[in-house]
Specification:
Elements: H1 5-23, H2 26-33, E1 46-49, E2 59-60, H3 68-77, E3 83-90, E4 93-99, E5 109-110, H4 114-128, H5 158-162, H6 180-186, H7 190-195, H8 212-225, H9 229-238, E6 247-250, E7 263-265, H10 267-278, E8 282-283, E9 286-287, H11 291-298, H12 300-306, E10 308-309, E11 312-314, E12 317-321, H13 324-334, E13 341-342, E14 348-352, E15 357-361, E16 365-370, E17 375-381, H14 390-400
Parallel strand pairs: 2-4
Antiparallel strand pairs: 1-6, 3-4, 3-17, 5-7, 6-7, 8-9, 10-11, 11-15, 12-14, 13-14, 15-16, 16-17
Helix pairs in contact: 2-6, 4-8, 4-9
Length: about 400
């Protein structure tokens, strides 16, 4: 039997209501909007971070003859890559810029998970200020209610959460509208989702990228400081770093910051987080975050050990060879030791530690820092149409700039 159109709409509405009551309305939003995209800031309410009245500005230095070859290469390579903004900064000077049509220095871009590196930095600052005693503290010292969820919370440290080794029972698969990440992204109450967290394994055993880790860190920060995350961000990072833009940060239905993502700002303002770490936490003579925290985060011996530390990513330095003998000879020449591995196509490679690192978000949002060459690269946009892997491409560019 076929129902009239108005009755079909009624049943669809009732089905949607049942789904919202059973799962919450996150699956409905996820099914409607699908996976995150560059326009998501228009879908959520937001908090605003005010620009500094006396902002810090990088020096425009585009067009220097010494970088003409780099410009020609990048102009060609970035075609058909859905790149909205690509900046190369060296010694505080912008030596290369590439903007999509209708995009400029004042355009706000979504950070997605680049925002995680800001939260990691705020944790470091809270430790510097004594608000949090140590990353070795148990999470339940500050959020004791979590212990009743799972006995394994008695072993969970802040460091486990910072390094994505928590062991939470959380699904990061964004393809399902009923998954944990869909609820985190589209749900109405981030606090409730954190409050009901459970574990699937002992903490400290396995690295597993889970955005709920960052949201828990933000909830913990808000708890111990008595301030909202947006207030902490404005007071301790956005204003001190001389932000040029009025950034916006998406909220859930109860006006809690989506701390694991969703900070929207200009390319140059994102670059300033990279500059803070490049300067070992010092900003124009003022120590914003301790050099101890920065060194403990991005030192290649700590960051490169697992590839992820304190909400920052290590950059891999991989060398490829046609045969194992060539790889062995190169290692000997460099006086290095590293395992030589064979790829499916028959070529060989080895990986060595590198001093560069990055903050990263989905769709290819990257803030890359190279302390060897004093270079920062910011790339913002969508996944490229052509076969270009930005996680490898950007470090390769940064390592060649002298």
């Amino acid at each position: 039997m076929k129902f009239p159109i108005h009755q079909q709409a009624k049943w669809i509405g009732l089905a949607g209501l049942v789904l919202c009551l059973w799962y919450g309305c996150a699956p409905m939003r996820a099914a409607r909007w699908r996976e995150p995209d560059l326009n998501d800031s228009s879908k959520f309410k937001y908090a605003r971070l005010q620009a500094n009245q006396s902002p810090f500005r990088f020096v425009p230095a585009v067009g220097q003859p010494r970088y003409a070859k780099m410009k020609k290469y990048l102009d060609s390579a970035l075609q058909q890559t859905n790149t909205n903004a690509f900046l190369v900064i060296k010694n505080d000077s912008i030596i290369y810029e590439n903007f999509a049509e209708n995009v400029n220095y004042s355009t706000l871009h979504p950070s997605f998970s680049v925002a995680k590196s800001y939260i990691g930095t705020l944790i470091g600052m809270a430790i510097d200020k004594g608000i949090i005693a140590s990353t070795n503290d148990l999470v339940i010292k500050y959020m004791p209610e979590l212990e009743k969820n799972d006995a394994r919370f008695r072993k969970l440290t802040i460091q486990h959460v910072l390094d994505m080794q928590s062991g939470f029972d959380f699904d990061e698969d964004s393809t399902s509208p009923f998954g944990s990440i869909a609820k985190l992204y589209y749900g109405n109450s981030l606090k409730n989702q954190v409050a009901h967290l459970k574990m699937k394994r002992e903490p400290g055993q396995v690295f597993e990228y889970q955005s709920i880790n960052t949201q828990l860190l933000a909830n913990l920060l808000a708890r111990v400081s008595g301030e909202k995350i947006e207030s902490l961000m404005a007071k301790y990072l956005w204003q001190p770093l001389g932000a040029e833009s009025d950034a916006i940060w998406s909220l859930d239905g109860r006006k809690t910051i989506k701390a694991f993502c969703c900070l929207n700002a200009t390319a140059t303002d994102f670059a300033k987080l990279g500059r803070l770490y490049l300067k070992k936490g010092n900003w124009e003579g003022k120590q914003i975050v301790s050099s101890h925290w920065v060194n403990g985060t991005v030192n290649p011996d700590s960051l490169g050990k697992r590839g992820y530390k304190n909400q920052w990513w290590a950059c891999s330095k991989i060398s490829y060879f046609k045969d194992s003998l060539s790889a062995s000879q190169k290692l000997a020449k460099l006086n290095l030791k590293a395992p030589i591995k064979k790829m499916k196509n028959g070529t060989y490679y080895f990986q060595t530690k590198s001093n560069d690192y990055r903050a990263e978000g989905i769709l290819g949002q990257i803030v890359y820092v190279n302390p060897d060459n004093n270079v920062i690269i910011v790339r913002l946009g969508n996944y490229p149409n052509k076969n270009l892997y930005f996680n490898g491409f950007i470090p390769a560019v940064g390592r060649e700039i002298n």
